[in-house]
UniProtKB/TrEMBL annotation, chain A:
Superkingdom of the source species: Bacteria
A GO biological-process term: transmembrane transport
Primary site of residence: membrane
Protein name: ABC transporter ATP-binding protein
Localization per record: Cell inner membrane
Similarity-based family: Belongs to the ABC transporter superfamily.
Source species of the chain: Mesorhizobium tamadayense
Any one cellular-component term (Gene Ontology): plasma membrane
Domain ABC transporter: 4-254
Keywords per UniProt: ATP-binding, Cell membrane, Membrane, Nucleotide-binding, Transport
GO molecular function: ATP binding; ATP hydrolysis activity
From TrEMBL, chain B:
GO BP terms, alphabetized: peptide transport; transmembrane transport
Subcellular location: Cell inner membrane
UniProt main location, coarse: membrane
Source domain of life: Bacteria
Gene3D superfamilies: P-loop containing nucleotide triphosphate hydrolases
Name of the protein: Dipeptide ABC transporter ATP-binding protein
The keyword Magnesium appears for this protein: no
UniProt key word Ligase: no
Membrane topology of the entry: Peripheral membrane protein
Lineage: Bacteria, Pseudomonadati, Pseudomonadota, Alphaproteobacteria, Hyphomicrobiales
Length: 283, 274
C-alpha cells in the first residue's frame, strides 16, 4: 500500500477573472522509505498540489480528486479536526518560504516546542531537550542561546533550518519538503540532505522533495516527476531521467543548467520547447 | 574604471538584549570586510549560511548603518546614521531581498507594486507608469494577466520575479541581489540571469550578487568574495578563485556541490544498494 496515493487531483482557484486551474489532473504515489522528487516549471502547481494534500489551501481553492489517501486513510473524507491531528505529526511539510512561514511574534524555541506540546504531549523539560537536539541536527550553532531568538534575528538559512526542525520534530511518516535548501550554502545543504535521508532510513519515512536543483535531485531521489503547466510531463526513475529524458521539457530543463551556458547567455526553455524532439521521444 | 561602491573595513555588531536570567550578548555579524565594485561589473558573495551576507547587503543598500568602517558610493562617503538618505541615493541603489514574500505588501496589486516606486520618486503620469510596469512584467517572464493579482496568488518563483521587477523600475545604477534566483526553476533562472546580463550590457549596471549556487556565481561574477563567520576569507577575480581556491572553507564549498551527472547518480545508487 502506498503511503500517499493521489489520483487525478484538480485544484481550482476562484479569481476576479474567473476560475483558474492551478493543478490539472495530477496523479502520484509515494511509498515508505522512498524519495520522490518533483521538479518543474515555476507556477506549475507543485506547491499548490502539496498544500492540497496537507489541507492548507485558502477557501478560494476547490480541491477534487478521484482518490487521495494517506497511510490508507481517505484525506478527502477526513474532518478538519482529524486532519489537524495528523498534519504536523504523521505528515508534515517544510514550506517554500521559511521567513514568511515562521511567526514573527514568538521565539523559535516557543515555535518548536509548541509542535511537541500539541502532538507529542511532552512536558517542559522534554520539549526543551528535544528542541535543542533538533537545532543541533539542523546545524544551528549555540542552540541553547538560539531558542530565545526571534525569526528576524536569524539569517535566511537559519530560518529555513528552523522550519526543517519543526517539520521533523515528530518523526513524520511522510515529509513534504518544498524547496528545503534554497537558502542554504552547499555545505549545509549537504548536511540537511544527509539528515533527511538518514531519517528516511531510520523511521521508514517517505519523502517528497520539491526542488529545481537538479543536483539535489541527482543526489537524493529514487523517482522523479516532471511537471509543466499544471500537468505531469514525465515520470521516471532518477537514472533514466538523467540518462534518457523523454519529454522535450525535461531535456530543456537539463540544458538550462548554468554550467551549460553557450557564449555569454544561457539557453532557456522557450528556446527549446518547440524544437522537434529526437526520434522516439514525445513531449 | 570608476568604482561604484567601495567598502573599507565594514563592521556590524548586533546587540541581543538579555532576559531576566540571560545576559545580553553581541553578535559580530560582519567583522571588517573591504571590497570595491567597478561600474558595469558584478561582485558575487558566497559563504556559509549565517556568515553575514544579508547583513552586508543591507549596509551596502543603505538600509542599515555599519557599526564601523566606511562606505563610499560613486566615490562619496555615505553615513546614513549621521546624514540620512537623499532621494537620489534611494533611487540609485536598489535591493532584491532574500525573502520576496515578506517584502511585498499583501494588499497591493502587482501592478501597483511595480508602479509605486515611480509614483514616489518621479512625476511620470499614471498612463506612463502603467506602461512601464507592463513592460517590466513581460521582461521578467510574467504577463498582463498578472497585473491585477495580489502577491498571495503567485508561486514562490513568480514572487521572486516580481521583486526583481520592482527593483529595476527606477533604473538603479547599483543593484544588490540577495539570493535572487534560488527560488527559481532552471528555465526562469536562465531567463532572469540573461535579463540581468542584458541590463548590464545596456545600462552598465553594477551588481552585488549574493548566492550559494556556485554554478550561477561562476556564470555571472567578475569577482568573487567568499565569507566565513563574518570575514572575507577569499576575494579575487572569478577564474582565480575557482581554479585556485586558497582557504579551506572555499575548498569544502566546491567539494560539497551536488553533481547532476549520470556517473555520480550511478555511484550513489550503487552505494545505496550495497
Ligand atoms: N491563492 C491563489 N489564487 C490564485 N492563484 C493562485 C493562488 N495560489 C497559487 N496560485 C497560482 O497557482 C499556480 C501554481 O502555483 P504553485 O505555487 O503551486 O507553483 P509552483 O509549481 O510551486 O511554482 P514555484 O516553483 O515558483 O514555487 C500559479 O500559477 C499561481 O499563480
Ligand atoms: N537583527 C538581528 N539581531 C541579532 N542577530 C542578527 C540579526 N540579524 C542577523 N543576525 C545574526 O547575524 C548573523 C549574520 O546574519 P545574515 O543574515 O547576514 O547571514 P547570511 O550570510 O545572509 O546567511 P543566510 O545565507 O543564511 O541568509 C547570523 O548569525 C544572524 O543570526
Ligand atoms: Mg512552489
Ligand atoms: Mg541571508
Amino acid at each position: 500500500m502506498a503511503l500517499l496515493d493521489i489520483h487525478n487531483l484538480v485544484v481550482e482557484f476562484q479569481t476576479a477573472s474567473g476560475p483558474f486551474r492551478a493543478v490539472d489532473g495530477v496523479s502520484l504515489h509515494v511509498e515508505e522509505r522512498e524519495v520522490l522528487a518533483i521538479v518543474g516549471e515555476s507556477g506549475s502547481g507543485k506547491s499548490v498540489s502539496m498544500l492540497a494534500v496537507m489541507g492548507l489551501l485558502p477557501w478560494t481553492a476547490t480541491v477534487t480528486a478521484d482518490r487521495m489517501t494517506f497511510n490508507g486513510r481517505d484525506l478527502l473524507k477526513m474532518s478538519p479536526a482529524e486532519r489537524r491531528k495528523i498534519v504536523g505529526k504523521d505528515m508534515s511539510m517544510i514550506f517554500q518560504e521559511p521567513m514568511a512561514s515562521l511567526n514573527p511574534c514568538f521565539t523559535i524555541g516557543f515555535q518548536i516546542e509548541e509542535v511537541l506540546r500539541f502532538h507529542m504531549g511532552m512536558d517542559k523539560a522534554q520539549r526543551r531537550a528535544r528542541a535543542i537536539e533538533l537545532l543541533k541536527q539542523v546545524g544551528i550553532p549555540e542552540p541553547e542561546d538560539r531558542l530565545n531568538s526571534f525569526p528576524h534575528q536569524m539569517s535566511g538559512g537559519q530560518c529555513q533550518r528552523v522550519m526543517i526542525a519543526i517539520a521533523i520534530a515528530c518523526n513524520p511518516k511522510l515529509l513534504i519538503a518544498d524547496e528545503p535548501t534554497t537558502a542554504l550554502d552547499v555545505t549545509i545543504q549537504k548536511q540537511i540532505l544527509d539528515l533527511l535521508v538518514s531519517l528516511q532510513a531510520k523511521y521508514g519515512m517517505g519523502l517528497i522533495m520539491i526542488t529545481h536543483n537538479m543536483g539535489v535531485v541527482a543526489e537524493t531521489a529514487d523517482r522523479v516527476i516532471v511537471q509543466y503547466k499544471g500537468r505531469k510531463m514525465e515520470e521516471a526513475d532518477v537514472l533514466s531521467l538523467f540518462e534518457s529524458p523523454k519529454s522535450n521539457y525535461t531535456r530543456a530543463l537539463l540544458s538550462a543548467l548554468p554550467e551549460n551556458a553557450v557564449g555569454d547567455r544561457l539557453p532557456t526553455v522557450s528556446d527549446m520547447m518547440f524544437e522537434p524532439a529526437p526520434s522516439g521521444a514525445g513531449a | 574604471m570608476t568604482k561604484v561602491v567601495e567598502g573599507k573595513n565594514i563592521v556590524r555588531d548586533y546587540h541581543v538584549g538579555g532576559g531576566l536570567f540571560r545576559p545580553a550578548r553581541t553578535v559580530h555579524a560582519v567583522k571588517g570586510v573591504s571590497f570595491s565594485v567597478d561600474k558595469g561589473k558584478t561582485l558575487a558573495i558566497v559563504g556559509e549560511s549565517g556568515c553575514g551576507k544579508s547583513t552586508l547587503a543591507r549596509i551596502i543598500t543603505l538600509i542599515d548603518p555599519a557599526t564601523a568602517g566606511e562606505l563610499l558610493i560613486d566615490g562619496n562617503k555615505v553615513d546614513i546614521a549621521r546624514d540620512g538618505l537623499t532621494k537620489d541615493m534611494r533611487r540609485k541603489v536598489q535591493i532584491v531581498f532574500q525573502n520576496p514574500y515578506g517584502s511585498l505588501n499583501p494588499r497591493q496589486k502587482i501592478g501597483d507594486v511595480l508602479g509605486e516606486p515611480l509614483l514616489i520618486n518621479t512625476d511620470k503620469p499614471a498612463e506612463e507608469r502603467r506602461d512601464l510596469a507592463m513592460k517590466m512584467l513581460k521582461k521578467v517572464g510574467l504577463g498582463p494577466e498578472h497585473y491585477n493579482r495580489y502577491p498571495h496568488m503567485f508561486s514562490g518563483g513568480q514572487r521572486q520575479r516580481i521583486a526583481i521587477a520592482r527593483a529595476l523600475m527606477l533604473n538603479p545604477s547599483l543593484l544588490v541581489l540577495d539570493e535572487p534566483v534560488s527560488a527559481l526553476d532552471l528555465s526562469v533562472q536562465a531567463q532572469v540571469l540573461n535579463l540581468l546580463a542584458d541590463l548590464q550590457d545596456e545600462f552598465q549596471l553594477t551588481y552585488v550578487f549574493i548566492s550559494h549556487d556556485l554554478s550561477v556565481v561562476r556564470y555571472i561574477a567578475d569577482d568573487v568574495m567568499v565569507m566565513y563567520f563574518g570575514e572575507a576569507v577569499e576575494y579575487g577575480p572569478r577564474e582565480e578563485v575557482f581554479s585556485n581556491p586558497q582557504h579551506s572553507y572555499t575548498k569544502t564549498l566546491f567539494a560539497a556541490t551536488p553533481r547532476a551527472d549520470v556517473a555520480s547518480i550511478k555511484a550513489r545508487l550503487a552505494r545505496k544498494a550495497a
